[in-house]
Amino acid sequence: MNFRKFDTLAERFAKAGSKEDREKILFAAESWANGQEDGDSDVYVKIMKTALDTGKEGLEKEIVRVEKMMENKSSDKVREKLTKKRNVLNSFRVKTEL
């Protein structure tokens, strides 16, 4: 799976100037995710959907939450899943506001 296109969409999503622009980017991400079998691309879509409602503050809270969970979880499988989610969340971090 090539996540570069999803990372690019995440950055464009974070930089988008309006909710309408973010909805268009979400639509593109959903279209690409539908063609994937791995399920990891769905994480990007879920985060975009949440960010439409919560904005940058919601993303920052989710990053903190995931990092706290990583500190407390010892299972390798859980840590791997949380690491992927944290990496996806970091794709949404840019200098501009949501």
Task: Describe the overall structure.
The protein is mainly alpha-helical and 98 residues long. The protein contains four helices and no strands. The longest helix has 32 residues, at 41-72. The protein is globular, with a radius of gyration of 13 Å. The N and C termini lie far apart (27 Å).
Q: Estimate the helix proportion, in percent.
A: over 70%
Number of strands: 0
Rg calc: 13 Å
Basic shape:
globular
Flag low-confidence runs.
none
Structural category is mainly alpha
Order of helices and strands: HHHH
Write the layout of secondary structure elements.
Blueprint (H helix, E strand, L loop, with lengths): L3 H12 L3 H16 L6 H32 L3 H16 L7
Helix pairs in contact: 1-2, 1-3, 2-3, 3-4
Tag the structure with descriptive keywords:
98 residues, mainly alpha, 4 helices
Q: What's this model, at a glance?
A:
Helix content is 78%, strand content 0%.
